[in-house]
Amino acid sequence: MYLARKRTAKGYRYYLRVSVKKGACWEARDLLCLGEDPSAYLRYPGGKAFYVSEELEETLRDLGVETDQWELERIFFRFVKPEIREYLRPYVDRSRPRAPRFSRREQLRLQATLHPFDCRRLVFLKLGSGRSELVLRKPLPFLNQLLEKSRDEIEQLLWDYEDRLRPREVVSYIYHAFALWDYFPGALTRYFPEARLQKDLDEAFLRALCETARDESYRMGLSEEEVLRDYLSRYVILYFDTTEAQRRFFEESRSGRWARREVLVRAARYFGLSPEALEKMGRRELLRLFRERAKELHPDRGGSKEAFILLRRIFEELMEALGYRRRF
User: Fold this and answer.
1) Closest CA to 73 of 46, 98, 91
2) Which domain holds residue 238?
3) Hey, which residues does 205 pair with through a beta bridge?
4) What is the pLDDT of residues 240-287, one digit of tens each?
5) Could you tell me if residue 151 is inside a domain?
């Protein structure tokens, strides 16, 4: 039994569901609709404790579902009051049933039965690794949580993990989940989505998403419309809500690096040095360089006003580019 959520116009509606084997696939079946606020089923007797409504437990038994408080508490744990949840988290984590361990050969055999899209997602979410095609050559017991589950249960599980992604991780996650590197032949920037033009990245993402929806082994008996509407649509929201801001940040930082380099090259040419030599110079050395040239160009020493103004402007730009904010 697991908790599932479904998007609505007002937020989410929650259900208790089970995965049931049907032929070669597993399918999801609704047990009970919990409404928009599952926390309504939680009870607090006092102190740092809680339990799930006994009426809910009885309702499930009437439906022929055998359960207990341990299972229900794990399912509803995310809706517990924050201060109690933090206190009880170590105890709840220890109460989770341990997954069976398999030999290396058996583990690799089981991993091979899982869909690559599911594996890539879980590898990134658990390890933060984008090199999933290399990581998956090793036995990974945490992938066993994807076994014997319906498409819906797998998506609900991964959705919970995805809620913990930090905003700056989202684009990399989608890039690696959908293996978008396959759409770009260049090996040098294979694992860096920021290296792609935004238009090319958008087109690759939409193509990969549609190909995933058409994949029968991914759909597990569901239609293209169902998986696009109920599961894959969340990636469209994630991607297009995030990429514009991330792309703008990347382009600004990249343009900043190029602007810094241009300042260094211009100043180096002016002072007759290399850009690398200027970068290695400390603040005192730079000031000495400025003062020596200023003595030559100052109007009181036979220089011109225009030449002295140019010196000051080049020097101020150089100091700012090297991180010295104060102007001279």
Assistant:
1) 91
2) 104-249
3) none
4) 877 665 655 555 555 555 567 778 888 888 888 888 888 888 888 888
5) yes
